[in-house]
Structure to design on (170 residues):
C-alpha cells in the first residue's frame, strides 16, 4: 500500500506529534515510512488551510491507497478559527468525494493549545488513529475494487478485530 501524508506546518509542536503517532502506526503495520522509500510521500504545506488542495491533487494522481491530512487549528480571539476549521473540513471531504480515494481528516481543532497537545500525545495520540484509518480505508477500497489485499491489510484487519473485541476463536 502507498500513502500520501499532507502536513500543515502551522502549530508544528502539535502537528509534529501527530505525524510521529501516524508514522508509528504505519510502521507497526509494516509500512516503510522512510521519506526515501516508496510507500509514503510527504507533502508539507504552510498551514491547515492549504491542506485540501494538495490532498486532492495527491488523490487525483491515483498513486496512493489513502491520503492522510495532518494539521492543527486552535481557536484564537477572532472568528478566523471558524472559517479555517470549516473550510479545511469541507475541502478534505470534497477531495475524498471527488476522487474516490480515502482522504483522512487528521486536523485537530481545539479551543486551546493544551487541548491540542492532549490530543497529540499527552493523553493519547490521534496521529495513530489517523494512520489506522488510512490502513483500514485503503484496505477496504482495495477489497471493494477487487484488488488483492497485502499483508498490511491483513494486519490491519486483525488489528481492527482486536480493537473491536473480536477473535477468530468463535
Amino acid at each position: 500500500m502507498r500513502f500520501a501524508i499532507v502536513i500543515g506546518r502551522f502549530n508544528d509542536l502539535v502537528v509534529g506529534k501527530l505525524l510521529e503517532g501516524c508514522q508509528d502506526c504505519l510502521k507497526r503495520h509494516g509500512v516503510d515510512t522512510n521519506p526515501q522509500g516508496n510507500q509514503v510521500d510527504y507533502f508539507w504545506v504552510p498551514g491547515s488551510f492549504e491542506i485540501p488542495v494538495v490532498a486532492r491533487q495527491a488523490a487525483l494522481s491515483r498513486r496512493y491507497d489513502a491520503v492522510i491530512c495532518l494539521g492543527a487549528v486552535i481557536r484564537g480571539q477572532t472568528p478566523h478559527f471558524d472559517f479555517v476549521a470549516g473550510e479545511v473540513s469541507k475541502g478534505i471531504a470534497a477531495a475524498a468525494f471527488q476522487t474516490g480515494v480515502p482522504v483522512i481528516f487528521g486536523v485537530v481543532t481545539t479551543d486551546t493549545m493544551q487541548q491540542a497537545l492532549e490530543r497529540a500525545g499527552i493523553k493519547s495520540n490521534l496521529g495513530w488513529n489517523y494512520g489506522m484509518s488510512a490502513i483500514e480505508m485503503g484496505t477496504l477500497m482495495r477489497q471493494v475494487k477487487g484488488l488483492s489485499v497485502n499483508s498490511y491489510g491483513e494486519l490491519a484487519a486483525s488489528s481492527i478485530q482486536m480493537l473491536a473485541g473480536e477473535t477468530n476463536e468463535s
Q: What stands out?
A: The first helix runs from residue 12 to 28. The two ends are 30 Å apart (CA to CA).
